[in-house]
Amino acid sequence: MTSQSQGIQQLLQAEKRAKDKLEEAKKRKGKAIAEIDHYRLQREKEFRNKQTNVMGSQGNLSAKIEEQTTETVRNLTSSYHKNMESMMKKLLSTIYDINPEVHPNFRHTV
Question: Helices then strands (H, E): number in the chain?
């Protein structure tokens, strides 16, 4: 009987140790999850800061490109209006002033 009660006592002690280890493991898991969450939040914050810096740079770059495009369009429009009349005269004179000639390679056969 005593050996039976000793066996029961040993089983109860083993069960208690297992329960303690399980609770300790749960605590460590909870602490690890908290550390992971903290680390994740920290990294997300750093990422948002970097993203803001990059997107801010892209916003500035976009504004510069828009400004350069507007300037280029303005210059092209100005050049078009300035040179349109003379180019139309040259084009029309080339079209209207035709000098018919026989090509040097043409052979007239009778």
Answer: 1, 0
Q: Which residues have CB under 8 Å from 20's CB, separation 6+?
A: none
Nearest-CA neighbor of 37 among 26, 48, 45?
45
Amino acid at the residue 101: E
DSSP state of 101: -
Structure tokens at 78: 């100005």
What's the pLDDT tens digit per position in 42-61? 999 999 888 888 776 666 77
Residue 101 token pair = 């000639």
The residue-averaged pLDDT of 66-74 equals: 94
Q: What is the Cα–Cα distance from 83 to 102, expressed in whole angstroms?
A: 34
Tell me how far apart the alpha carbons of residues 80 and 93 are, in angstroms, rounded to a whole number: 19
- Output the six-digit token pair for 14: 């083993």
Give φ, ψ of 108 to 5 degrees: -90, 120
Instruction: Compute φ and ψ for 104, nearest 5 degrees.
Output: -60, -25
